[in-house]
Write a structure and sequence with these properties.
This protein is mostly helical. It is built from 13 helices and no strands. It is about 80% helix and about 0% strand.
């Protein structure tokens, strides 16, 4: 398979999967359910939608500030406005072509701030590693806060507390054995995993080399608090979700995060994953779908609109480059 075909497939397949999931979501509901979903979306309180978008923008501004904390030890301090515009462009690109935003982000930083590509890309990789760690932390918090719900689901499927502990023990033992095998293996797959784990460790350790550790930590916590808050405020747009506890939205957030990571901007999969998560708390499919589509549409419109504007404005503000 030649390079052109591979590139085409990488572009077409994720979009095709997203479109297929949208069609599946549409045809898996009755006409009556679709009417209820559209009615709920039409009647959504735009104030809370605007609040979600505003919180999302604040998270991007915070990420732009935090990016300089990683670049400063390398001898660079780009303009904050350029950082923000480049980040918005990268999110816009990711919504069109999966994983393209990181390359565009590093390239734009090279073009407009003269930061070598490999150094800029290295800071982006470090950011992604920190994001993975934060997502794992959110998952852990969700598990702690929703232990009763999770145990209830397991018991409904014939797995009690003892069985859950057994599964956890087997998982830990399996993880230890897998790590030992990977450490001793010389296969290409094992080497990729080892390089990833090494990069994970290097990314974490790089934080200790920067001057503004406390500020970096603050912005990291602020960014992820914004991500969760974006989810939480949308609950007020759908009556059935307005009384749900924060733990329910942490579970929905995790489901949505995985959906965003596997398809272009969560196209099609995001509402399905969020609806499935909320159904655990007794939320009907129509209300869950309405919540998921409102959340996805608001954030996607934000990324598309501000990303497109940034794409036009960035070169205008840097004509000398």
């Amino acid at each position: 398979m030649n390079t052109t075909v591979k590139k085409t497939l990488k572009l077409v397949i994720p979009i095709a999967i997203g479109v297929a999931l949208v069609l599946y979501s549409y045809h898996s509901t009755t006409p009556e359910d679709r009417d209820k979903i559209f009615e709920a979306i039409k009647n959504a309180d735009l104030f809370w939608v605007a609040m979600s978008v505003l919180i999302g923008i604040l998270s991007h501004i915070s990420r732009a500030i935090r990016w300089n904390y990683l670049l400063e030890p390398l001898g660079y301090k780009p303009k904050l406005r350029n950082n923000l515009l480049i980040i918005l462009i990268s999110y816009f690109a990711n919504s069109l072509v999966l994983r393209s935003g990181e390359i565009i982000r590093a390239t734009a930083l090279t073009t407009y701030e003269e930061v070598p590509f490999e150094k800029g890309f290295g800071t982006i990789v470090t950011e992604r590693i920190i994001d993975v760690i934060m997502l794992l932390l959110v998952i852990l918090i969700a598990l702690v806060l929703q232990t009763d719900i999770i145990l209830g689901i397991l018991e409904e499927n014939g797995i009690g507390l003892v069985g859950s502990i057994g599964i956890l023990a087997v998982g830990i033992v399996g993880l230890v054995i897998s790590i030992r095998i990977i450490q001793k293996s010389t296969s290409a797959f094992a080497l990729k995993i080892k390089n990833f784990l090494k990069g994970l460790l290097d990314g974490v350790l790089s934080i200790f080399k920067m001057k503004r550790k406390a500020a970096f930590l603050f912005h990291t916590l602020f960014i992820w608090s914004c991500y969760i808050a974006m989810f939480w405020v949308i609950k007020f747009t759908v009556p059935e979700t307005s009384e749900l506890p924060i733990g329910a939205f942490l579970v929905a957030f995790v489901a949505g995060a995985f959906a965003m990571a596997t398809t272009n901007g969560g196209l099609g999969l995001f509402p399905i994953a969020v609806t499935a998560a909320l159904s655990v708390y007794g939320v009907s499919k129509t209300s869950g779908d309405a919540y998921g589509w409102i959340m996805w549409t608001a954030q996607t419109m934000m990324v598309v609109v501000f990303g497109a504007i940034s794409f036009l404005v960035l070169p205008l503000l840097n004509r000398n480059k």
